Amino acid sequence: MSGKIKIEQIRKMQEKIYEKPIISNKKIYIIDNSDTMTKEAQNCLLKTLEEPPQYITIILITSNESNIINTIRSRCMKIAFRSN
């Protein structure tokens, strides 16, 4: 199961998310290859996506959207990027 984003990693990120920003008014978190999150990790992230702090932006990057659970997809704005 190596290469997977696990629930422990999401929990550590959530601890940091709820710390207010010091230098600026915003904090941005990018989860690259978010489609590799385990189902448990995705469900853990869901609460933060449902009620994010005002100062936070979370960006999920994926090349396989079908691996993201529907409840997360329904709470995100999809932006598609294409190469030329």
Topology:
Layout: H1 7-17, E1 27-31, H2 39-50, E2 56-60, H3 70-73
Parallel strand pairs: 1-2
What is the helical fraction, as a range of percent?
Answer: 25-40%
Write down the overall geometry: globular
Beginning-to-end CA distance, first to last residue: 34 Å
User: How many beta-strand runs?
Assistant: 2
- Average pLDDT score: 93
CATH T-level fold name of the domain at 7-64: Rossmann fold
- Which structural category fits the helices and strands? alpha+beta
CATH architecture of the domain at 7-64: 3-Layer(aba) Sandwich
Largest sheet: 2 strands, parallel
Give unreliable regions as ranges: none
Rg value: 13 Å
What is the CATH superfamily label of the domain at 7-64?
P-loop containing nucleotide triphosphate hydrolases
Order of strands, widest sheet? 1-2
Overall CATH class of the domain at 7-64: Alpha Beta
User: Could you state the order of secondary-structure elements as H and E?
Assistant: HEHEH
